[in-house]
């Protein structure tokens, strides 16, 4: 009778993809006060005062500025909450999201 050879079994793990990242973008408007934009950036995106000011000024000068990059659901939630903060005060403040390249 031939001897049986037991080979070690290997487990094949499914390859998990990283979640697609999305950019949160601040869109400039000429009505929302700068101080309010900085306050929202600090509160919603945990930026310090200097970072928030630089993001706000970049959006003011270029029309838009990427605030941060997150997984899709986090990016959409933060963009919505930041936009809603402006709406609650009657400002047209707007944050959008788009997939990162």
Briefly say what this structure is:
By secondary structure, the chain is of the alpha+beta class. The chain has helices at 34-45, 49-62, 72-88; strands at 21-27, 64-71, 94-99. It has 3 helices and 3 strands, in the order βααβαβ.
Terminal-residue CA separation: 61 Å
What is the H-and-E element order? EHHEHE
Low-confidence stretches: none
Mean pLDDT: 92
Strand content: 15-25%
**Could you give the count of β-strands?**
3
Structural class: alpha+beta
Any idea what the CATH architecture is? Answer: 2-Layer Sandwich
Strand order of the largest sheet: 2-1-3
The helix count comes to 3
User: The biggest beta sheet, please?
Assistant: 3 strands, antiparallel
Q: Write the CATH homologous superfamily.
A: Ribosomal protein L7/L12, C-terminal domain/Adaptor protein ClpS
* Number of separate domains: 1
CATH class term: Alpha Beta
Give me the Rg, rounded. 23 Å
